[in-house]
């Protein structure tokens, strides 16, 4: 479900319905130079390609770069991962209940966040 130009209450309600029924949900909007995007993918499975890291054997190279690990771009492995995020009202409730950590995070929050709210 893709949603735009709706009230926050409507977005949360539709997201709850989608989350409960395992339907992927995307929402976003733009207000001049400011905008937002939220995606609730539920339990989302994906594959990530990782480049193999090889270490240089001692004695092959001299100098300060000899001890650094090098990336071998010819060898890659595929790693399957699962990602899951809670719906937005759950994460807001959780962050509000953390006390001092929530206050510190609030100080680091960009003013644009409150503008969009």
From TrEMBL:
Stretches the record annotates as Disordered: 56-117
Transmembrane segments: none
GO molecular function: ubiquitin-like modifier activating enzyme activity
Domain of life of the native organism: Eukaryota
Compositionally biased tracts (Basic and acidic residues): 64-73, 91-103
Protein name listed in UniProt: SAE1 enzyme
Organism: Psophia crepitans (common trumpeter)
Encoding gene (name): Sae1
């Amino acid at each position: 479900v893709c949603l735009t130009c709706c009230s926050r209450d409507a977005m949360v309600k539709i997201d709850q319905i989608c989350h409960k029924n395992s339907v992927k949900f995307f929402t976003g909007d733009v207000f001049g130079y400011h905008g937002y995007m939220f995606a609730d993918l539920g339990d989302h499975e994906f594959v990530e390609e990782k480049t193999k890291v090889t270490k240089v054997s001692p004695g092959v190279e001299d100098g300060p770069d000899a001890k650094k690990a090098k990336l071998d771009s010819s060898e890659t492995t595929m790693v399957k991962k699962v990602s899951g995020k809670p719906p937005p009202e759950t994460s807001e409730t959780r962050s509000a209940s953390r006390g001092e950590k929530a206050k510190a995070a609030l100080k680091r929050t960009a003013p644009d966040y409150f503008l969009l709210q």
